Design the sequence.
C-alpha cells in the first residue's frame, strides 16, 4: 500500500520483485497493473437464440465482475489499472459506443436476466468514469490536479466524443454528478476546450451531411461551385430507400439529443459552440431540413404504418431538441448576462436582438421557437432591463414573429398573444 | 448494429479521439476464460490445502473414503478442463469445484453457469460426480467446519465489495426517451397521397 498525504503521482512503493528481492518503484507504474483482460461490451442479441442470450449473459457477467473488482481496488491500484490497462479502456469505450440509448429503436423486450445484467454494467461503467474524473477521492487519496489533467488527457481516458456519450447515456437523472465530472475535467485540463473547439466544425459537418443526403443545398458549401454531373440524379428524401430515410431521421434524432444533453449538462460549452456561429447554422439547417424531411414522412407510403408514426415522433423530438439547443445558446450567451446585470448589458441586449432579427426570414424555425419560448417574454425582459430600448425595433420583431406564424399557416397559442 | 450516431461521426472525422489500432488484441470469451482460470489459480485456496484440511479431520480408517472422494473430484476436474491441461490446471479446477459445491446438494443453474463461465462447455456427469463427492466430504466433516474453511481461504474475500467506490452514491437509471407528443397530422393520414416510387 502506498504511503499517505503525498499525492499518488509522487508516491513510491516497495514491492517484492519476480526474482524475490524487494524493489522500489513509483506508485503509478505499469508493473503494478493486474493482467485482468477486460472484454469489450457487445449489446444483447436482438432476436437471439437462447444460446446467443446465454453467451451474452456470460460476456456481460465478465464485464460486471471485472468492473466491480476495479471499483473495489484501492486508489493507487485503481489508477495503475486505468492508466496502463488498454483492455479496460477498450471495454469502457465499447460500452459508450454500443450501449443502447433510450432513443434507439426498441428491440424485442429482453429477459429479466438480460435487463439485470445490463443495469449492473450501466451503473459500473458510470461509477468507473466518475472515479476517473475524480482527482481527490479522500484526504489521503488524491492526485496533483495538474498531473491528473495530464493523465486523463494524454491517455484519452476522456475525450469529447466520450463526454458526449456520457451525457446522452447517463445525463437523465444524473445531471449534477455529470456536471461536476465534466467541470472538473475541463478545469483541470483546459486542453479539452481546444478539443471542443476543434470538434464543433465536425458537428456542423454532420448537419451538412444530413442536408446533403436530403439532396438539399448545404449552407456551408460554396454556392458558386459547379454542380457535379450526377447531382441531379441523387436521391432525395422522397426517393431514397425507406432504410436510408430511417437512418437519416435516427441520425438527426441522436445528434440533436446528444448536443442538447451536453449543453444542458455543461452550459459553459455554449460559448465554444457560439464561437463557430453554431446558432445561425443550426437555425438555417432547421429551416431547410425539417420541412423537407417532414414532408417525406407525411407523403411517402410505408409498408409498416408504425414506422411512419415512429419517424414522425422522432422528427418532433428532434425539432424540440434543436429549439431547446437554440434557447440554451441564447440563454447562456445573452439572456443570463442580461439578467445578471453588469457593465456589458447593452452589448448582450444588442446581440440578442440581432439573433432574433436573424431568425425573421427562417419562418418555420421562428414559429417553432416562439411556441416553446415566447419571444415576447424575452422582449419584455429586455424592456425591463433596458427601459430605453428602441421600441420600433422590438415592435418590428414582434410583427415578424406574427408574420412567421401566419406564413406557416398555424395558429398561435392563446397565451402567447396575451403577452404582446 | 448500432444506429448512426453523432459521436460515431466525431470519432471518425475529428482528431480528438484515440485512433483505433486494429492490430490490438481483443479478448474473446475463450481467452477470457483462460485468464480467469489463471487468476483463480493464483489466489485463495490450493488443492494441497483442501486435501490437508479434509484428511487432517478424519481418522485413518475414514481417510480412505475421503481420499476416494477427493480423487473423484480430481477426475471430474480433469474431464471439465480437459486432460491436455497440466496437473496445475486440473487441481485448480478441483478447488473451484470444491468451492462451488461445498454448500450445495445438487448442480443448479447458478452452479452450471459458474462452471461454464470458468471452463466453457462441460459434461454434466462430471459436474454431478464432483458435486456428489464434495457433498460426501461435507457430510462427514460437518457443514460449518467446511464453510469456515472455505470462507477463510476463498478468493472471493479479496473482493472487499463493501468498500467499492460509488457504493454510497445515488445513481439514476433513467434515460432520455422520445417525447410523448401529439400527432396532429395522424387524423388526415388517410387522405395523404403516397408518392413513394
Sequence:
Amino acid at each position: 500500500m502506498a504511503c499517505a498525504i503525498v499525492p499518488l503521482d509522487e508516491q513510491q512503493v516497495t514491492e517484492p520483485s519476480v526474482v524475490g528481492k524487494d524493489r522500489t518503484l513509483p506508485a503509478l507504474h505499469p508493473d503494478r497493473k493486474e493482467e485482468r483482460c477486460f472484454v469489450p461490451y457487445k449489446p444483447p442479441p436482438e432476436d437471439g437464440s437462447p444460446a446467443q442470450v446465454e453467451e451474452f449473459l456470460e460476456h456481460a457477467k465478465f464485464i460486471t465482475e471485472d468492473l466491480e473488482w476495479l471499483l473495489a481496488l484501492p486508489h493507487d491500484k485503481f489508477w495503475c489499472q486505468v492508466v496502463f490497462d488498454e483492455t479496460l479502456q477498450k471495454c469502457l469505450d465499447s460500452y459508450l459506443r454500443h450501449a443502447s440509448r433510450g432513443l434507439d429503436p426498441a428491440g424485442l423486450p429482453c429477459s429479466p436476466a438480460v435487463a439485470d445484467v445490463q443495469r449492473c454494467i450501466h451503473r459500473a461503467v458510470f461509477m468507473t468514469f466518475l472515479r476517473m474524473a475524480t482527482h481527490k477521492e479522500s484526504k489521503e487519496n488524491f492526485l496533483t490536479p495538474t498531473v491528473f489533467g495530464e493523465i486523463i488527457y494524454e491517455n484519452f481516458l476522456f475525450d469529447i466524443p466520450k463526454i458526449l456519450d456520457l451525457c446522452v447515456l447517463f445525463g437523465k437523472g444524473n445531471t449534477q454528478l455529470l456536471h461536476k465530472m465534466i467541470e472538473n475535467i475541463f478545469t483541470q485540463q483546459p486542453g479539452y476546450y481546444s478539443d471542443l473547439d476543434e470538434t464543433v466544425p465536425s458537428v456542423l459537418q454532420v448537419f451538412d451531411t444530413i442536408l446533403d443526403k436530403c439532396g438539399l443545398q448545404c449552407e456551408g458549401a460554396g454556392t458558386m461551385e459547379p454542380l457535379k454531373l450526377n447531382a441531379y440524379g441523387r436521391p432525395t428524401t422522397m426517393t431514397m430507400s425507406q432504410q436510408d430515410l430511417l437512418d437519416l431521421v435516427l441520425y438527426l434524432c441522436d445528434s440533436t439529443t446528444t448536443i442538447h444533453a451536453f449543453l444542458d449538462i455543461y452550459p459553459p460549452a455554449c460559448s465554444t459552440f457560439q464561437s463557430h456561429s453554431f446558432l445561425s447554422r443550426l437555425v438555417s439547417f432547421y429551416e431547410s431540413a425539417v420541412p423537407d424531411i417532414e414532408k417525406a414522412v407525411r407523403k411517402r407510403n410505408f409498408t409498416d404504418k408504425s414506422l411512419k408514426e415512429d419517424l414522425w415522433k422522432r422528427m418532433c423530438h428532434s425539432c424540440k431538441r434543436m429549439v431547446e439547443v437554440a434557447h440554451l445558446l441564447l440563454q447562456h450567451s445573452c439572456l443570463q448576462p442580461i439578467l445578471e446585470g453588469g457593465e456589458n448589458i447593452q452589448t448582450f441586449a444588442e446581440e440578442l436582438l440581432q439573433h432574433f432579427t436573424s431568425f425573421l426570414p427562417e419562418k418555420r424555425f421562428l414559429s417553432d421557437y416562439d411556441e416553446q419560448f415566447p419571444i415576447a417574454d424575452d422582449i419584455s425582459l429586455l424592456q425591463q432591463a433596458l427601459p430605453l430600448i428602441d421600441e420600433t425595433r422590438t415592435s418590428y420583431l414582434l410583427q415578424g414573429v406574427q408574420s412567421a406564424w401566419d406564413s406557416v399557416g398555424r395558429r398561435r397559442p392563446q397565451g402567447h398573444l396575451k403577452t404582446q | 448494429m448500432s444506429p448512426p450516431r453523432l459521436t460515431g461521426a466525431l470519432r471518425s472525422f475529428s482528431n480528438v479521439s484515440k485512433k483505433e489500432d486494429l492490430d490490438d488484441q481483443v479478448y474473446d470469451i475463450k481467452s477470457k476464460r483462460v485468464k480467469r482460470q489463471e487468476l483463480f489459480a493464483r489466489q485463495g485456496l490450493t488443492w494441497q490445502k483442501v486435501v490437508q484440511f479434509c484428511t487432517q479431520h478424519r481418522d485413518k480408517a475414514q481417510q480412505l473414503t475421503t481420499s476416494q472422494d477427493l480423487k473423484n473430484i480430481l477426475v471430474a476436474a480433469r474431464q471439465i478442463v480437459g486432460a491436455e491441461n497440466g496437473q496445475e490446471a486440473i487441481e485448480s479446477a478441483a478447488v473451484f469445484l470444491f468451492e462451488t459445491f461445498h454448500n450445495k446438494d445438487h448442480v443448479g443453474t447458478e452452479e452450471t453457469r459458474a462452471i461454464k463461465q470458468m471452463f466453457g462447455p462441460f459434461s454434466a456427469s462430471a459436474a454431478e460426480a464432483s458435486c456428489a463427492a464434495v457433498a460426501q466430504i461435507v457430510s462427514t466433516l460437518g457443514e460449518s467446519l467446511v464453510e469456515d474453511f472455505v470462507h477463510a481461504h476463498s478468493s472471493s474475500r479479496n473482493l472487499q465489495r463493501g468498500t467499492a467506490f460509488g457504493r454510497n452514491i445515488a445513481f439514476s437509471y433513467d434515460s432520455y426517451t422520445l417525447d410523448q407528443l401529439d400527432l396532429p397530422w395522424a387524423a388526415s393520414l388517410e387522405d395523404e397521397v403516397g408518392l413513394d416510387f
Summary: Residues 185-197 of chain B have pLDDT under 50 and may be disordered. Residues 97 and 130 of chain B are 7 Å apart (CA to CA). Helices of chain B lie at 6-13, 29-42, 47-56, 60-81, 87-101, 109-119, 124-141, 143-153.
